[in-house]
Amino acid sequence: MRRWNGWGDDTVDFEVPQAASKYLAKLIGPAAPPNIISLEEMMAMVPASRLPMHPLLNTDPEERIRHCFGQSMSDWIYFRGGLVPIFPDGVAFPESDKDVREILGFAKEIAARVIPYGGGTSVVGHLTVPKGEQSVITVDMRRMNKLLELDKQGCLATFQAGVRGPDLEAALRAEGFTLGHYPQSFELSTLGGWVVTRSAGHFSMGYGRIERLFVGGEMETPVGTVKIPAFPASAAGPDLRELIMGSEGRLGIVTKCTVKVTALPEAEIFSAAFFPGREESVTAARALAQAGIPLSMIRLSLPEETSTTLSLKDGWQMDLLYRWLAWHGIKEQRTMLLYGAAGTRKKVNWALRRVKEIIKKHHGVYVGTSVGKHWYKSRFKLPYIRNNLWDLGYAVDTLETAVPWNQVPVTRKAIEEGLRNALIGVNEKVHVFTHLSHVYPHGTSLYITYIFRLADSPSETMLRWQTLKKAASEAIVRTGATITHQHGVGIDHQPYLAAEKGALGMEMISSLCHTLDPEGMMNPGKLVK
């Protein structure tokens, strides 16, 4: 069963090794386990629903609790620390487009607000319930999860938008296909959620980000149904797909998605290499991105993240690795490159040979496939460490951006320094580390993780996080980077969106929202206020 107050399945844990606990205590100080409120205590905070009865609505207090949060840091502080949140008044579980239309019509009739809910994995405040006099309905799409059509000739699949990652892939693999879209939240998130947040998956370098995969669909809005045919190409004016992608539930509820699918690869291999320092490894990553090699992924952990990642492991194998790398001149400033290729065996072997040539040219050392295999098997388990670190007294949060290659050093440095210095005023240290999660010929994403100690009270922890988020976001805007590469805008990034879109761009978005949602009932506060 899903945790009500944390990440993922409540039967899965990511125990923090003792070596890692010591590592954190040395870097930012020892921490104390916080007080975590129980589900029963949270249920006592739930007020009576303001909604009239409706057959599609569930007003059970526990159901409302489980739908008032995503996975942003502010959400965590609310549901773990006991800061009283705002709850939806009811939760709907539609099973058809007709049900969705009925819910929107009912909400319009009673002047309620509506929050679409996919997998509940948003880390930037997409699911935050707005304060106000109006009642709020959360629409959980989990029952709209069917494969509706598979066009094997055209390699297109149409799903209901509430299908979750594992179910989507299982349906496709049974027919010999894959979507190949694997965000970190894959096990929990939905196809519709990927589309409306412009998601990027681990293997986007090969299969494409969701905007390359999404070719058509339907969205129910307060004023009608938007239908987008799945043409192979069209010059008929602006592409309406772009209005749906990144809309974050602000325009309506996506009910159907047609996506490009690919035949299952004959071979799929993940390998690793290490470099002696930051500059050599970033240069190598750029060379790989620009070489036209058919890779499915490149992920480069910079020195601080490499050290942190390796601190989660211990044993004689790690000692052997450190000695072997040192013998090759790769010591304290080591960086770790993970990369993969998928396709025919011949294509994969050729791609991996070319990668080795570039690695060697930039003073890197190939270390085989064991590290890559371990990452592949455990890649969806890593977010669970948030639960266990919180229990020890540490908060973990992430943010990301994307920049042209020539802006990588200055942007990375500005964000990292902003985070490291943000809590000096309260005499707290922050551990910050970065990896390049996706690379492109003209630039790369920067994915930053930061860890800080929980305060004695939830309200003080909230102030610490708000200070950190503000410092990082201002650094991103100041250096001209995008406020988000893959997480979307939500509430957390909304104040910084105008810096990227400009006044006229924000007016265009507002006009579109008003056209499809004139009463402002859909997920208010997201994208535009």
UniProtKB/TrEMBL annotation:
<dbReference type="GO" id="GO:0008610">
    <property type="term" value="P:lipid biosynthetic process"/>
</dbReference>
<dbReference type="GO" id="GO:0071949">
    <property type="term" value="F:FAD binding"/>
</dbReference>
<dbReference type="GO" id="GO:0016491">
    <property type="term" value="F:oxidoreductase activity"/>
</dbReference>
<feature type="domain" description="FAD-binding PCMH-type">
    <location>
        <begin position="84"/>
        <end position="264"/>
    </location>
</feature>
<dbReference type="InterPro" id="IPR016167">
    <property type="entry name" value="FAD-bd_PCMH_sub1"/>
</dbReference>
<feature type="binding site">
    <location>
        <begin position="248"/>
        <end position="254"/>
    </location>
    <ligand>
        <name>FAD</name>
    </ligand>
</feature>
<dbReference type="InterPro" id="IPR006094">
    <property type="entry name" value="Oxid_FAD_bind_N"/>
</dbReference>
<comment type="similarity">
    <text>Belongs to the FAD-binding oxidoreductase/transferase type 4 family.</text>
</comment>
<feature type="binding site">
    <location>
        <position position="386"/>
    </location>
    <ligand>
        <name>substrate</name>
    </ligand>
</feature>
<keyword id="KW-0285">Flavoprotein</keyword>
<protein>
    <submittedName>
        <fullName>FAD/FMN-dependent dehydrogenase</fullName>
    </submittedName>
</protein>
<dbReference type="InterPro" id="IPR036318">
    <property type="entry name" value="FAD-bd_PCMH-like_sf"/>
</dbReference>
<dbReference type="InterPro" id="IPR025650">
    <property type="entry name" value="Alkyl-DHAP_Synthase"/>
</dbReference>
<keyword id="KW-0274">FAD</keyword>
<feature type="binding site">
    <location>
        <begin position="116"/>
        <end position="122"/>
    </location>
    <ligand>
        <name>FAD</name>
    </ligand>
</feature>
<dbReference type="InterPro" id="IPR016164">
    <property type="entry name" value="FAD-linked_Oxase-like_C"/>
</dbReference>
<dbReference type="InterPro" id="IPR016169">
    <property type="entry name" value="FAD-bd_PCMH_sub2"/>
</dbReference>
<dbReference type="InterPro" id="IPR004113">
    <property type="entry name" value="FAD-bd_oxidored_4_C"/>
</dbReference>
<dbReference type="Pfam" id="PF02913">
    <property type="entry name" value="FAD-oxidase_C"/>
</dbReference>
<keyword id="KW-0560">Oxidoreductase</keyword>
<dbReference type="InterPro" id="IPR016171">
    <property type="entry name" value="Vanillyl_alc_oxidase_C-sub2"/>
</dbReference>
<feature type="site" description="Important for enzyme activity">
    <location>
        <position position="299"/>
    </location>
</feature>
<feature type="active site" description="Proton donor/acceptor">
    <location>
        <position position="447"/>
    </location>
</feature>
<dbReference type="InterPro" id="IPR016166">
    <property type="entry name" value="FAD-bd_PCMH"/>
</dbReference>
<dbReference type="GO" id="GO:0008609">
    <property type="term" value="F:alkylglycerone-phosphate synthase activity"/>
</dbReference>
<dbReference type="Pfam" id="PF01565">
    <property type="entry name" value="FAD_binding_4"/>
</dbReference>
